[in-house]
Amino acid sequence: MGTTDTSEWWELLPAGIRAQVDGYVLQDARMQAVRAVLEVCRARGLGLHDAELVVHRRYLHHGDRVARTPDSPLDRESLAALAAGCPGRVVAIEAVWDGDTVHGWFVDLLAITDGPAGERALATIHHGTAVRHLGDDRARVARHPSAVVAEQVGRALAADLAVPFHFASPDTPDDGAPRWRP
Questions:
Q1: Region of 177 on the Ramachandran plot (φ > 0 left; ψ -120 to 50 alpha; else beta)
Q2: Any idea what DSSP says for residue 42?
Q3: Rounded distance between C-alpha atoms, residue 76 and residue 83, angstroms
Q4: Whole-number pLDDT of residue 139
Q5: pLDDT tens digits for 77-112?
Q6: What is the rounded CA–CA span in Å between residue 80 and residue 154?
Q7: Where does the chain show beta strands of DSSP type E?
């Protein structure tokens, strides 16, 4: 399906559905927008990938008007404050891969606690977040930017808290990599 076809699919949507999709896009609710397009046009032969392209075009159309989900804070002070709010004692900082169809691969930075044992998400480092964090250094990064940033901020936070840092698969996205064990 080409670019002109996305416009044709958009025009085939009833006005109420177009308004709903634009509402989802403006709220940065990509998956709900894709689902709305897919549910209406699937019977006419539209597939998931094509529905994603239709919604992508709406994101381009609305540009800066989209209320983007804010990036997780990655500064040491904010991360330390989030870790301090964990129930129990923080015993490690861990970076783990995750992924979805909207963002692709990303890294979650977690505080591992005991008493009670558990984990708390401190930050989610998507590709765009990582690129913005790296700034001009992005050109010198050979690995996935999310992994590079997770290592940088995770190691610094772990050092500040005097706990171990664990990232089982920093070179390759792997959501099944071994987790930290005391």
A1: beta
A2: G
A3: 10
A4: 74
A5: 999 999 999 998 999 999 999 987 667 899 999 999
A6: 10
A7: 89-100, 104-114, 118-125, 165-166
